[in-house]
Structures are given as structure tokens and as C-alpha cells.
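Escalation from tier 1.

The customer reports that the assembly of two entities below gives different C-alpha cells on two consecutive runs. Tier 1 could not reproduce it. I'm attaching the input and our single run for tier 2 to review.
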Amino acid sequence: MTESTQLHPDAESLARFMRGALPRDEARDVVRHLLSGCARCRRITGAWWPKDLVRQTDTRKVVPIDARERAASHDYQPMFSRVARNLAERERHFAAERRSTPELRAELEALPLEERLEAAGREPRFQSWALVESLLEDSRESASVQPSDAVALAELAAHVADRLDEDRYSTAAVYDLRARAWGQLGSALRIQTRLWDAQKALDVARQNLERGSGDPAERCRLLVLQAALYGDLKRFDEAFALLDRVCTLAERCGEDHLRGSALIRKARLAAQRDEQELAVDLLREGVALIDPNQDPRLVLVAGHNLVHMLVDGGRYREALARLDETRALHLQLGGRLDHVRFRWLEAKVYQGLGWLKQAAELYEEVRSNFIEEQMAYDVALVSLELAAVYSQERKNSEVRRLAEEMMPIFQSQKAHQEAIAALLFFRDAARKETATVSLIHEVADYLRRSRANPDLRFRAGTSVG
Amino acid sequence: MTIPDRQNASASISEVLVKVRPALERVLGSYDVPPEDAEDVLQDTYLTLLYKWEKVQCPEAWLIGTLRKKCIMYWRKRRKRIIDAMDAAILELLSEPERPSQERQDLARDFDRVLGRLPERCQKLLRLRYGLGLGPSEVAERMGYQPSSIRKITSRCLTVLSRELAAVGFLEQEHD
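Tier 1 run:
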């Protein structure tokens, strides 16, 4: 043994090292000494080693060992009193913060859109937890009514959340809130069909979540959002895998509602994969688990999706039988955009039943609403479905009108070149009065698929990846 | 949008805390969290409840469950800090060129002796890491592991090494 390794570090240094609180060069000397195998010092460090927790393989829960033995060894009384006093103080601040939120919101909303982010970032009074929560709540509510507002609100919420004082609110809680804000931004962008931007936002959400409290419910919520995006990107296997993880986590935590919502999402994915029977089974299983008081909107989504699945399965009579019930849910719980999407679904039912006049009227109505919302892809899709109805009715002038009107809307939304090429192909066919129902379906099918995959190329007769 | 009145909620939080306090003390005790650190763990739990108050369905169960989770995370973080410190120190020690030759030989001998007590897979991995100074992707390549799994395997080996150095469960083999 050399001289340096023979000198024992004092007990305090060893303890500090084992608590991760020793400066780097001192830590190096301690490790050098421990490498020499000094039993005296290793006895001290061994006593400071963090407690090992036993993983029970049957329940997959981590539990403390010798719990009863250790329970009485510490006196937590004074600490509890201090923390309770501190919490009361924080509560008062938080209550004041919440009371001032409407005023701050009004002030921010009076500014032009582009100045809001700058003001929120510059002035500390805007950097409040309650403001973020309020923005997120409104963003969620706007998602089905005004998707562009939902994005703007979530963007502002994420901007403010990123600037929250971690010491003031608790670091883990702040990171959870940041994850929620970025998650909501991702969700709003997804609804606006900005899928690549949505993925970027969800990536940021995930990074924040990793530094958060580790609350499984927070994790589940983000996984559900990611699965929804994977679904829109047609990455079904990954979406299913995520939702399976959510189900497992939720079951482990006894979160039936969360598990139910994951099953409803899975049902939607199964339907997108043309597994209609499985979709209906999953949907029914999911609905039985959800708590309508916790998330009434989910009841609406489940009802809407069931009709959608029946339409996709060509079960138009069954879908028709469910329309009244679903309409009532939409009137009670839905937003404007939900209602537009329900009318779209209703039109598909009528078209499937051969009630072309009613279908065309509804498609026209839906199309006008999407134009107002500047949702170019949806405008194009509903226009093509309407064109198919007019084509069946041999109304070539109407088909031509739709084709001509579609182009400027689509081009103004910066759609990708291949999608524009597909619509140009349709317009040319409409001009020549050769736009058959099958040609229209081909273009519509390409648009649906290229929405998630802009690299997909359009070729008349077949589209290739 | 409705901004709830926090005055009412405040009374409810206080009531919950009083009611659930004995159970929280039992949780902290059963996880053996030292009182000086328990304060941060508990405060963090309370604050998280305050901010999530309206979303939490059953505050009592939420508090107990969340505190348990935070206790587990507390010990995991403590362990990680030690392992990171051990790892950094060994890397520095073995890469000091100015160390006298005798000391270098002593260090190499001590290091070999410690490594010799570890499972073979860890010995090999740590020799590549410390002896040859290879990065994780190079270690993965040499040992035939997937790059995606090397982080987890390295972390396990560093834990075994740290436990060995800190004499967790190995004292009977030691000498002064």
C-alpha cells in the first residue's frame, strides 16, 4: 500500500462521498483509498450505501424491505410541521396567482399574436403556473372548435411553462407541467394535421417528462398522445405497442378510466387497419371502463367512432340506427368541429345507403365549414367525396366546379407537390369529363395516405411509396 | 373557462393532510428516508398535489402512492450519484499520466484485484471502458451487444463495481 492509500479519509468525507456531496478531487482520493481494499473505510461506506428495495416479481411492485423494523427509527414530527406551514404559505401565493390569471390573460390577448410570446417571455408576472393551466384548458376546449386557436394557446402555454421558476413551484412538478404543455401543443398540431410539427412537440414533451415526477398517469397521458399521432402517421404497430403499455401501466395503478381510454384509442386504430370486428370489441370493452364524469368527451368520441367503424365496414343500416344517439351526444358535448365531422359521417351513411341528394347537401355544408377553418386536406377529401356523388348523378359541371375551386385552397395551404399533382390530375379529368367514381376514389385514397407520408408519389392508376 | 375558488380548496387540502399524515409517516419510515432528506421529498409531494388538486380524484390515495414513488426515486437518485462519482473518479485515476510509476503499478494492481471479484461479463466490459478508454459504442461493438442495450449493461456493471468498492455485502472477504 502506498502512503496516499494508507491515509484514511475521515468519516465525514466518506459520508459526504456516499451522499454524492463531495467535491470531485476529494471524491477521487476516496475512491483511490477504497480501491486499496481498506476494510475500516469500507465498513463506513457500506453502511451509507442507499437502501436496496426488493422488486416483487409477481406483482412487479417495488417495496421496502424490513419495513416494520425501520418504521419507528426516525422522528418525522418536526419536519411534518415545517412542511405543512410552508405549504400553507405556498397555497396563499397560488390562490393569488389564480385570481390574477383572468387579468393576465386579458392583457396578453389584447396584444397582437406575434407579440404575446415575446411579452410572456420578457415579463416575469406572466410566468405563472395558473396562467399555463388556464391556457392549456382553453387549448383543449378549442381543439375541436377552432384548431388554429388551440395551437396558438398551447404554444403560448409551452412558452410560459418553459420559463417557470423551478424553485418556486418544485422542479418535478414544473417538468410535468412542461410535458403537459408540449403534449397539448403536439395534440393540437396533430388535429390541425401538422403531423411533423406535432412529433417535434411530443419529443420535447417526452424530454420534459423524463425530468418530471415519474407519475405514471402523466406518462400514460403522453403515451396516448403519441399513439394518436402514430395512428395518423399509419404507424399502427408502434401505436398499438404504446397503447398496450398504457393499458399495462394503468392496470397496475388501478386507473380503469385511463385503461378504458387507451382501449378506445386501440379500437380506432384497429378500425383504421380494417379490423372492424376487433375494433368494435375493443370499443365496447373500453366504454365499460371509462368514467363519464371524468371525461364526458370520451363518451362522445367512443360513440362517434362506433358509427365510423360501422360505415367503414359497410354496415350502413346499423350506422343509421346509431345516428340519433350520436347526434344527441354531439349536441350535448361536442364542439363546432366535432359537429362538422359528425355531419361528414352522416353524409357517408346516406351515400352508402344510396340517398345521394341528402348526402350531397351534407357534403356541401361540411365542405364550407372546412374552407372556413382553412383545413385544406379535409376540404380536398370532402370535395372528392362530393365529386364522387355528383359523378354518380352524372352532374359533370358540378364535378368540374369542385375541381376548379379546390386548387387555390389547397395551394394556399402549402401542401406538398405530389398532393397538388394528384389534384391537378383530377382537375384535368374533370375538365375533360372523364373523372369517374373510381378515379376520384383513387385520388382521395392517395390524399389520405400521403397526409401521413408526403414522400408517397402519385401516379395515375397507382401510387407508389 | 372557470377558475375555481382556491379558498375552499385550501381548507380541503389541509383536512386531507391532517387525515393522511400518520400513513405518510409510515411510508417515509418504511423506506427509511432520513428526516433531513424526507423534508424535500414530502414538500415536493405536497406541492405536486397542490398544483394537481382539481385533477386528483382521491387525494388520500394519491398522496400515499406518490410519496411511495418519490421515496423509491430518492434512493435511486442517491445510488446513481455514488455510481457516477465512482465512475468519474476511476476514469480520472487511470488516465493520470503524471502519476509516479510505482503508484501507477499499485493502482493497476488494486484495480485488477477489485475487478477480479466481479462477474466475467463486467470484468470484460470495465476493462474495455477503463483500461482501453473505449466509448459505449466501441464497447458494444467489441462485446457484440446492441448499441441500444449497452447503456443498461454498463450501468449494471458500474453498480456491481460500486457495490464492491463500497463493501456492500462483501466485508467478510476483506483485510486491513
